[in-house]
Amino acid sequence: MTLDERERETFGETLRRLQSAQKGRARGAPAYSVYINRSLGRVFAAGAYRAGLTANQVTAVSALFTFTGIALLALVAPSPALGIGIAVLLALGYAWDSADGQVARLRGGGSVAGEWLDHFVDAIKIATLHVAVLIGLARFTGVEGAALLLPLAYSVVATVTFFGMILNDLLKSARGATTTAARGGASPARSILLLPTDYGILCLVFFAWGWPSVFWWIYGAMFVANALFLGAASVKWFREMRAIA
Asked: Is 172:179 a contact under the CB 8 Å cutoff?
């Protein structure tokens, strides 16, 4: 689409065109990502496209929101207002993360470099978020000793889960097998059941950051759910790899 055509197109028309070209959701994708984050990302994508932003620029906007929130965790003493700010920043970063791929589709398709950048920023986010939680708890709260191992354990689980999902799709694509993203068809019940594994829900947990003891228990429950998911998923993933070997 030319610049003149983009300018003549209304925001609603862009939004509808984007919705019709929407990528199928991954099977088992949790509810926040499917029903809230993708919808927010679609609105941001339509606005970014009409403003002339590229997909890589949208990725940079996502990174700005996300890493500002992460930095605040490590550098500023917890307070209710700060917790709200961090949760909003992380949630906005996640929505813009959904928007970059949608902008790429509106502009006629993404690039390998753009996909690499998107995943690279995601990897930095996953590697630093829980480290920032550890630093913030250690610097500013009464959480100490073995309790501080929780963010380290959560970081391991989150990193391994992310790498496992990326590796699954990479190996399946290399062998012509159907990837998770291509399957689609997740049931609403399954999506709701997997909410504790949803990064969007983790963003919302930071609303409790102003009350460190409350946050620690909610965060701990999220960790347990994610660790159980990884244990079950790793068995399933290994069986899938054996089936296509």
From this structure: yes
